[in-house]
Prior knowledge:
Layout: H1 3-12, E1 16-18, E2 28-31, H2 34-42, E3 50-54, E4 59-68, E5 73-82, E6 90-96, H3 102-112, E7 117-122, H4 133-154, E8 161-162, E9 166-167, H5 168-176, E10 180-184, H6 192-203, E11 210-215, H7 223-231, E12 235-237, H8 246-260
Parallel strand pairs: 1-3, 6-7, 6-11, 7-8, 7-9, 10-11, 10-12
Antiparallel strand pairs: 2-5, 3-4, 4-5
Amino acid sequence: MTDAAARKEFILYMYHFYTEKTNITDKTISIYGDDVNHIKNVLRMKEGEEIIICDSEGTDYHTRIVSLDRDEVVTEILSSGISEAELPFRIHLFQGLPKKDKMEMIIQKSVELGVFEIIPVMTKRVIIKLDDKKKEESKIKRWQAISESAAKQSGRGIIPRVFGCTGFKDAIKMASRMDVFLIPYENADSSSEGMKQALKQIENIPSGSDVAIFIGPEGGFEPAEVDDAVSSGAKVISLGKRILRTETAGMMLLSVMGFINM
Length: 262
């Protein structure tokens, strides 16, 4: 391994943190909030140690800690560049709202796999109902914290946003404005030819595109919902001959998309 390759691998496994762009100057970056305690008291880092700081918009800064105070960690910038952890296109996951805590796992794993943002969708067969505004706000706060934690763990250049619950018709409108709109469906053509067509859809996604993926809840989509999506420009694809759970289908598709477009 060359010195440059060894250095790149060393940087890859550094601790990652996020800060607002307002905390970044030409030479230094400051970190505030809970991460200060994490750096000082959990990781027990010292002056001179190096970390990666992201601006949450796709730029990574390789930095060295120069001071640690009670409420602030100050670092000096050693280098910066576009995050190498992001896919060449932006995946918007429209997820039929599942019951219990499945949504938390879906958020965690989809962030690890490169999703850009997550939109929980209220379809006709959704079992859980978030009618209480305060409970919904609490859920969204919890979901966003899970997204941030997963982004740190996986070295993402952004923190994917988790939206509030969206009605099916509004979600379709959002997805229809994107460059690619895919809806996996158990009744789609799962023959070898059908799977080839699905792979072509994924292989030919242009760099910089916005890609909408619609995943149904536990009970799946109603046929009328699929028809509405197709009328709005969705391409129906198959994920194979097996019917996947709602928490598996999105992960399977994200994995394939990420692998093909590495």
